[in-house]
Amino acid sequence: LSCACTSKPPPTLHVKAVTPCADSIGGTFEGVEYALAPVRGDKQLGIACYDPIRIEDISKDFSAHLDAERGVMIINVQGHGAVTYSIQSAREVSK
53, exposed or middle or buried, with CB in 10 Å at 0-12, 13-18, 19+? Predict the structure, then answer.
């Protein structure tokens, strides 16, 4: 028994901009450009600059999941696990 199925790689967020300590990043995900801000949990409230995705991560791809219903994107960030970002804005990228 064999399967000629091809598993589709998980969608990724391509990071295009990071504003350190301003809690915002910009990137493209499935043809849409997003401005995102990390959702701070109780553990991060006392951290002045909570930047799971840093300036060194510009041009990198991160596996991500869009939850449009909740207005968030969950991004897998090495060293931080699944980090929830709130969607600040979104616009279609012209081709």
Answer: buried
Task: End-to-end CA distance of the chain: give it in Å, rounded.
Answer: 42
Element holding 10 (H helix, E strand): none
Q: What is the pLDDT of residues 7-28, one digit of tens each?
A: 777 899 999 999 887 778 999 9
pLDDT of residue 31: 93
DSSP at 50: -
51-89 pLDDT per residue, tens: 889 999 999 999 999 999 999 999 999 988 999 999 999
Distance CA 57, CA 72 (A): 20
> How far apart, in whole angstroms, are the C-alpha atoms of residue 49 and residue 21?
4
Q: Three-class SS of residue 57?
A: helix
SS3 helix, strand, coil % of the chain, rounded to 5?
Answer: 5, 50, 45
Dist. CA 46–CA 19, nearest whole Å: 19
